[in-house]
Amino acid sequence: MKNWILFFTMVVFMYLYTYILGGETSMVMTYMFLFSPVVSVLLVFPFRKNVAVYVDMPYYEVEKGGVVRVNIRLENRSFMPFPFISIEFCEAINFKVSDSYNMIVSLGPFEKKVITMEYTAISRGVSKIGVSGVWIKDYINLFKLSILKNSAEERFAGEVTVLPKLVSLKSTSKILLGAEESIKQEDLNTPSMNLITWNGEPGYEFREYIPGDPLHKIHWKLSARSETLMVRKDEGRGISKKRLFLDPYIKTVQKKQSIDSIYHLLFGLPSVNPEKDSCNMENKRLKLEEKVLETLLAVAHTSVKTGREVELWLFEEGKWNKYEISDSKVINEIQYRLASYKFEKFPISDFLKRLPLNEVDENEGKSRYLKGTQSIVFTGNCDNALYSAIKVFSEYGVDVDIVLVEGYNSDSASVHKVGDSLIHHQSNYWVLGVDEDISEAFS
């Protein structure tokens, strides 16, 4: 549109110039200028089909931080040069690009050219990347003609899934060894205020006593707590399982109007852009969500690598679902699931549904083995409702450890209060910064 406005402005100027000064030369120049768009189109239009476009998109998935390269191959099969070929790339909110989304290149006679755009994954999710349009423009840049249809290809853009980053923890991380340390204290018959109830021993699982079982396998302290005889299973049966909960609720904070904003409003001065503020808050929220998911994945991944089975609970579409993780293949499937996982933006009114107590109890057949697995909840919002849900678990004899990622919405006083209460209930409690290195967090 700007080019057309400029063109008509020049036409008017040339006409006035000819009218005032007169002369055959100026008249010829005016007519040449008037017919230049027609000539320009006639030079381009018949040859547009001789320009072929090919798009290479080799990836369908990438981990956060990875790079996807989109290659566009242009081929001019005629002797006519094309000075203006406009390329428009797809915009993706969870990618950043190495160049502008709009590019203009030239193509000489019988020339071939490759244009590469790098998409760097910056956050999880599914986005369409690639080419949204390619046009040939005439010599004076007034008209454009699409040339995508010149290619036999059908796909010029595609959806790419950005997976949450998979981090490995150190094998000596406390979140992996916490239960073992507690059992060492118990085996030494030394009292411990941090003993994790019913979490089991490394390398052992427990079941109720069956007549005929050797008496030396009876775990007397565990039996006293459960008021029934519990025996240790065979040592070769594997190490204890981990039960991981993902807290589905992350608080959405509405930015309050500051005194400076009110002052600017009253006196008619320019204020901070509210849309920009809203965008910044949303980016912080997304960053917090990703950190929670990556921390959970790190614990699950490292646990599986060290031989533990993992039981993951996710709140999806209004209900809790359980996923058994036993190898790296399932870890990759969980990465896919978490790439598009949606947290709850509004509080869950019933704190009993904040964690899947009923679902876990039903899954275990309402048996005493509910207590036989180390349980950890991962959250970005440690509040009283979550504490109440964990407290209900403790009433069943299950101590739930907590991993909190501190973000923009953390209330320090509330965090310390809940943390002190959890420690009092013999649970482990870890706090990570949203920018903290996960691999070093539990050292």
What report would you give on this structure?
The protein is an alpha/beta fold and about 450 residues long. The chain contains eleven helices and 18 strands. The protein has helices spanning about 1-20, 25-45, 175-185, 220-225, 260-265, 275-305, 330-340, 355-365, 385-395, 410-425, 440, and strands at about 50-55, 60-65, 65-75, 80-90, 95, 100-105, 110-120, 125-135, 145, 155-165, 205-210, 230, 240-245, 310-315, 320-325, 375-380, 400-405, 430-435. The strands form four sheets. Strands 2, 4, 6, 8, 9 and 10 form a six-stranded mixed beta sheet that branches. Strands 15-14-13-16-17-18 form a six-stranded mixed beta sheet, with helices on both faces. α1 (about 1-20) runs antiparallel to α2 (about 25-45). The longest helix is centred in the middle third of the chain and has 32 residues, at about 275-305. The chain starts with a helix and ends with a helix.
